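The protein record filed here:
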Amino acid sequence: MSLVRVLVVDDQTLFRRVMTAVVEETDGFVLVGCAASGEESIVSARVLRPDLVLMDVNLPGIDGMEATRRLRADATAAAVVLLSTYDEEDWDGQAEECGAVAYVAKSAFGPDRLTEVWALTGN
């Protein structure tokens, strides 16, 4: 079984560390890099070729939804999961509009949710 390669994108150092720790603690996943902006996520994804991008919604420059649209336009694009502090009920269906697999509230993100959202990709 190959490891799922993950890119973490968040402009706040604390949340990058938390998401990184979750990835590192979850069997079958490996962190390949981090980015702090939407623009940086696009460049990093081209270079690192992750299987999964954990993308904050609110980023400086282009936001997470626009960065997701741009990432998903690539034929070899990674799956994207949007994360933010908003309640999940408030995001029902919106993540899919930009090409994301799912939206997860940061307060609910952990190893089980990471595994669940990866399963949604069909990989």
About this structure: The CA atoms of residues 6 and 31 lie 5 Å apart.
